[in-house]
Specification:
Layout: H1 4-20, H2 35-47, E1 53-58, E2 61-68, E3 78-83, E4 103-104, E5 107-109, H3 117-133, E6 141-146, H4 157-163, H5 165-168, E7 172-175, E8 181-184, E9 187-196, E10 198-207, E11 211-212, H6 222-234, H7 244-253, H8 257-263, H9 269-279, H10 281-291, E12 294-302, E13 308-309, E14 312-321, H11 327-338, E15 345-353, E16 356-357, H12 363-372, E17 380-386, H13 392-396, E18 401-404, H14 414-420, E19 427-429, H15 430-454
Parallel strand pairs: 3-6, 3-7, 7-18, 9-17
Antiparallel strand pairs: 1-2, 2-6, 4-5, 5-19, 8-9, 9-16, 10-14, 10-15, 11-13, 12-14
Helix pairs in contact: 1-3, 1-15, 3-15, 9-10, 10-14, 12-15
């Protein structure tokens, strides 16, 4: 296991500094300022004699790259990728300062402790220790810490893949989101993310007629149209689909044959999801998202002043797609939902990326199981198909095998993850940091050996 010095003297302080750098991404180009954490990592790697490359897509939006060339040009490459930005945090909802990086009760607290600065820091320390203690691996070994993940990677991963593919290309990648646990009658299940839904962000726009707020009789109020449309979208009842990735997941997740059968039945699925929600809400949310198109109206705008009837309104909807579903499918669903109000709205597609999946039978998956086995010898693996998106999708789209995984304390359940993911009181245990470091430290040697044998 990791030495006290490595975890307590290197990993914990690095994670605390990344949290305290407060690289908050609100979606605007000048937010994030990941340059602060890129500089932190640059200093850290420099102390270990490791050269970094910083690629800046916009002032202050820095991405940091370490690429260690392999000895064999025919060997596959392995990348660790984390992100540097975090979402905003409302300090009033937290029991501590969200950006304190406090260490108490065996945990590090702060925004990003779960999503995903714990991995960004663990990977960095593992890479530094490996480079200093052993010869080069057969293939390229890469560390990448990106900006702007929380806003679809426009200034981070997407920009790097589009503009600097020669620098950031990789055959295999480990990134977020996975490694948390499912506890049920079958025992301990370890999640590993192998695929993710597609994303479509839609903007609905409507018009009204401005007027004085004291004269609402027969008014053409854009806010009323927006309200009625949102109500219809909120009532959306998606059709569930038993696609291959979902079925693979529930075969591993189901407590017994009876539950697997119910989760595999379109007739019983909704009822069994409600039952699971009462005991494990986080698990139910993952299963629901994996089985259907979802819509969430998350941004609503109408009006500019209390006494003016608004003449325009906007609804922005976060829609997630299953494999095979398209933008055209989304437009049809929205038009059907709006019904008689459809004529009042125009539909604008703001963002689109298709669902993407990596195969399970690979040297990286096998190596992960081998590294984890001594720690959790009786655990079984749950291949997750997630409802959210990660920056790994840009590499999957280029043919890279991408898994979301880290090794955590077994107390870190799927419900814990779901509650802290973009939520309040994010915290990660010191034990989880130790386990993660050991996983990232040991994985490359096992992976490259497996990859060589598979050639």
């Amino acid at each position: 296991m990791a030495s006290y010095r490595t975890v307590e003297k290197k990993l914990v302080p690095l994670l605390q500094e990344l949290i305290r750098n407060k690289c908050v991404n609100d979606g605007t180009p000048d937010s994030g300022q990941e340059v602060r954490s890129a500089e932190t990592l640059n200093k850290f790697f420099s102390k270990h004699g490791i050269k970094t490359t910083i690629l800046e897509s916009h002032p202050g939006r820095s991405n940091l790259l370490v690429r260690i060339p392999g000895k064999d040009p025919k060997a596959p490459s392995l990348m660790y990728m984390g992100h540097l930005d975090v979402v905003p945090a409302n300090s009033e909802e937290w029991s501590c300062d969200p950006f304190s990086g406090d260490k108490r009760g065996g945990y590090i607290w702060g925004r990003g402790a779960v999503d995903m600065l714990n991995m960004t820091a663990s990977q960095a320390v593992a890479v530094a220790e490996l480079v200093n203690k052993r010869d080069r691996f057969p293939g390229d070994f890469i560390y990448l810490a990106v900006a702007d993940e929380e806003a679809s990677g426009r200034l981070g991963a997407r920009w790097l893949v589009e503009k600097h593919w020669d620098k950031v290309k990789a055959d295999y990648m480990v990134t977020e989101l996975g490694g948390f646990f499912i506890h049920n009658k079958k025992g301990l299940g370890i999640t590993i993310s192998c695929g993710e839904k597609g994303i479509v962000w839609v903007r609905l726009k409507t018009k009204g007629t401005a007027g004085h707020g004291s004269l609402p009789f027969h008014s053409d109020n854009a806010a009323v149209k927006v309200g009625r449309a949102v109500e219809r979208i909120a009532r959306y009842k998606p059709k569930h689909t038993l696609h291959e990735e979902y079925l693979n997941m529930i075969k591993a997740i189901g407590e017994d044959k009876k539950q697997v059968k119910a989760l595999s039945s379109l007739r019983e699925l909704k009822k069994v999801l409600q039952k699971i929600y009462l005991k494990a809400p986080g698990l139910a949310k993952f299963l629901h998202a994996a089985s259907c198109m979802t819509m969430s109206p998350n941004l609503i705008k109408a009006g500019s002043k209390t006494n003016i009837i608004p003449d325009s309104g906007i609804i922005e909807i976060d829609i997630r797609l299953l494999p095979g579903q398209t933008v055209e499918d989304v437009v049809k669903e929205i038009e059907k939902l709006l019904g008689p109000f459809n004529e009042y709205f125009t539909i604008e597609i703001m963002e689109y990326f298709p669902a993407n999946v990596s195969p399970l039978e690979t040297p990286l998956f096998t190596a992960t199981k081998e590294v984890v086995s001594p720690v959790y010898p009786t655990a079984y693996y749950v291949p997750l198909f997630i409802g959210s998106v990660t920056d790994g999708r840009f590499w999957r789209n280029k043919g890279t095998v991408v898994y979301g995984f880290s090794l955590f304390d077994e107390e870190f359940s799927i419900d814990d993850y779901a509650s802290m993911f973009h939520g309040k009181d994010e915290k990660i245990s010191i034990k989880s940091l130790e386990l993660a470091y050991n996983y990232f430290y040991k994985l490359p040697e096992v992976f490259f050996a497996k990859a060589r044998n598979s050639l």
